[in-house]
Fold this protein.
Amino acid sequence: MIVLSSLAVAVTAYLKGWIEPTSLRRWVTQAGPLGAIGLVGGVVLFELLWLPRMWGLLAAGVLFGALWGCLLTIVGDLCGAVLCYAIAKGAGHRWVQAALAERRRAARVVELLAHRRGGWLVAVLRVCPIAHYTLVSYAAGMAGVPFWPYFWGTALGILPAAILYPLLGDAALRPTSPLFIFAMALVAAALIVTLLATRRLLRDAPPGR
């Protein structure tokens, strides 16, 4: 629903003439490295504030194109994931514990990660829409998942969204192009596959204590 709403806003703004892709990208180009740093910082901030990370990924495609948008969102996603993990493992442990207590599905995600601490589960949780991206990062720190499995699992799990959403963001400003239709079809197929994978993961997971 958030994806569709974001796309609707982007397409409407383009058709109304409120935004112009060439101008936006020219401003980003003129900003030089500061533009890239700003995007990475924005993605990290979105994740720290529990905002939907896909907004940052779509914006990356709009501002930087599919390729650079993908690379920059991967950097931002990894930085945000490591920062949230460090907060949960370190001085912010009690704050994270209180924050997770107020979140639906948080206890279930922490339980899954505590029972299976491998990187493959982290990767699956990143791909499947079981819980918010930030929740998984904090839950992994709370559950005591070792850093390196957490890191490579995150790096693997973020790839589908980091590729698809910047591609979709790049194509959304050309809503009549074949690329936009192709990107929409890819995102729809990915959502169906991840929903099916989510159902299987929850079904096969060990029952709660």
Summary: Residues 2-204 form one domain.
